[in-house]
Design goal:
6 helices; 118 residues; mainly alpha; CdiI immunity protein domain-containing protein
């Protein structure tokens, strides 16, 4: 049976950056301070904010998220369904969504490897 990939899974993962997720003032401040178009700063942001969130997923969920991001990157998706329906704390617009997602994939893979899965 062929796996069905849902782009909403990526949006759900990135909810930690959404303005609707207003539970942590310190996290909000940290997100605003980072330049999401600078790969070094974005990686730091992922490591600080997204890594703990990703660790809450089961091994199977982590693997599925990685495969989902990879799938949509392979399809050259523009990720409009992720970003156009989300208002983030990012201080500026993401100029290259594919680069953002490639870095996300790299970080998720690294986080999974850190847990000894995969």
């Amino acid at each position: 049976m062929k796996k069905t990939y849902e782009i909403v899974d990526i949006k759900n993962l990135l909810f930690v950056f959404d303005i609707e997720n207003t539970t942590d003032v310190e996290r909000e401040r940290l997100i605003v301070e980072k330049n999401v178009n600078d790969s070094r700063q974005l990686k730091e942001l992922f490591d600080t904010v997204l890594r703990p969130e990703f660790y809450e997923y089961t091994d199977a969920e982590q693997e599925s998220l990685i495969n989902t991001v990879e799938h949509f990157l392979d399809r050259n998706d523009n990720f409009d369904l992720v970003f156009d329906r989300m208002t983030t704390y990012f201080d500026e617009e993401i100029t290259d969504r594919s680069s953002f997602m490639r870095l996300l994939l790299e970080c998720l893979t690294k986080y999974r490897d850190e847990t000894g899965c995969g």
